[in-house]
């Protein structure tokens, strides 16, 4: 009997752990009195997730012209289906002069009714730039397929700050290959393609900086991201130097589901190598 019960719990845990949170979640966020508005729309873009962790961007908005965009990370408990989301850097905001964006913590629970997935719970927070508390409220979100705002790749706060001061030289883009994939999870590994000669690169995906001034060696430089259906992704290798033996060359190994690709890239002070991806669900 103990073995049967243990097996049942393991199966339940595995089934919940397999639940992917990656995608678009949209609904309503209320706020108590003294808040800027009593009700907002809220759209979460969970761009990466595993069994217990996830990350992405959150849009709180009254309309598409009045909004805040914030980075977040989160933890998910597959046993009780509880998720806690912690916002960090405010990426963009366009709000009335009397409003101050809130940096929020969400405490939500995942459930499913038929085919519809729902997140329900509460939020608390403080004003951007100080520790004044924001009037808390409630959240109800449904999983959606079409976003209101463009889906970006998740970028750490450190890389975000670096990119703000990053100045790209005007270089030609050379498309080396276009790859159609049938799975959202893309894993990329970059190696020096020839003699290790101090080639240094920065990697952008859809103009988002994901690797900054990294040296190519015989050890992989990893880049991972989750693609959304019908969205084009453009990876660009930008040469920071040409090493001792120009041009800057790299071997890119791409793993997408059960498929594996190898692409050789070459970047210089005149051009940047580009590989395009498209996820066809």
Structural topology:
Layout lengths: L1 H16 L5 E8 L8 E11 L3 E11 L2 E12 L4 E13 L7 E12 L2 E12 L9 E8 L12 H8 L7 E10 L3 E8 L7 E6 L2 E8 L5 E6 L5 E8 L8 E9 L2 E9 L3 E9 L2
Parallel strand pairs: 9-17
Antiparallel strand pairs: 1-2, 1-8, 2-3, 3-4, 4-5, 5-6, 6-7, 7-8, 10-13, 10-15, 11-12, 11-14, 14-17, 15-16
Structure description:
The protein is mainly beta and about 280 residues long. It has two domains: about 1-145, Beta Barrel (Lipocalin), CATH 2.40.128; about 155-280, Immunoglobulin-like (Sandwich). About 10% of the residues lie in helices and about 55% in strands. It contains two helices and 17 strands. It has helices at about 1-15, 155-165, and strands at about 25-30, 40-50, 55-65, 65-75, 80-95, 100-115, 115-125, 135-145, 170-180, 185-190, 200-205, 210-215, 220-225, 230-240, 250-255, 260-265, 270-280. An eight-stranded antiparallel β-barrel has the order 1-2-3-4-5-6-7-8. The protein is globular. Mean pLDDT is about 85; it is low at about 1-20.
């Amino acid at each position: 009997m103990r073995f049967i019960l243990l097996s049942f719990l393991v199966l339940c845990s595995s089934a919940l752990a397999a639940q992917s949170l990656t995608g678009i979640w949209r609904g309503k966020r209320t706020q108590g009195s003294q808040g800027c508005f009593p009700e907002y729309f809220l759209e979460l873009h969970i761009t990466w997730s595993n069994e217990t962790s996830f990350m992405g961007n959150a849009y709180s908005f009254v309309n598409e012209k009045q909004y805040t965009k914030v980075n977040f990370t989160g933890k998910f408990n597959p046993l009780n289906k509880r998720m806690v989301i912690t916002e960090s850097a405010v990426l963009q905001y366009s709000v009335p002069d009397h409003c101050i964006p809130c940096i929020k913590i969400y405490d939500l629970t995942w459930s499913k009714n038929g085919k519809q997935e729902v997140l329900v719970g509460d939020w608390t927070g403080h004003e951007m730039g100080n520790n004044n508390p924001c009037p808390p409220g409630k959240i109800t979100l449904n999983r959606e397929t079409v976003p209101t705002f463009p889906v970006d790749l998740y970028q750490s706060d450190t890389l975000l700050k670096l990119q703000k001061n990053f100045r790209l030289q005007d270089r030609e883009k050379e498309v080396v290959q276009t790859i159609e994939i049938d799975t959202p999870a893309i894993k990329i590994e970059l190696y020096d393609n020839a003699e290790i000669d101090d080639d240094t690169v920065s990697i952008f995906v859809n103009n988002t900086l994901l690797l900054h001034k990294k040296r190519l060696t015989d050890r992989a430089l990893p880049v991972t991201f989750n693609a959304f259906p019908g969205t084009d992704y453009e990876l660009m290798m930008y040469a920071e130097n040409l090493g001792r033996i120009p041009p800057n060359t790299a071997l890119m190994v791409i793993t997408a589901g059960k498929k594996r690709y190898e692409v050789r890239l070459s970047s210089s002070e005149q051009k940047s190598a580009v590989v395009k991806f498209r996820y066809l669900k």
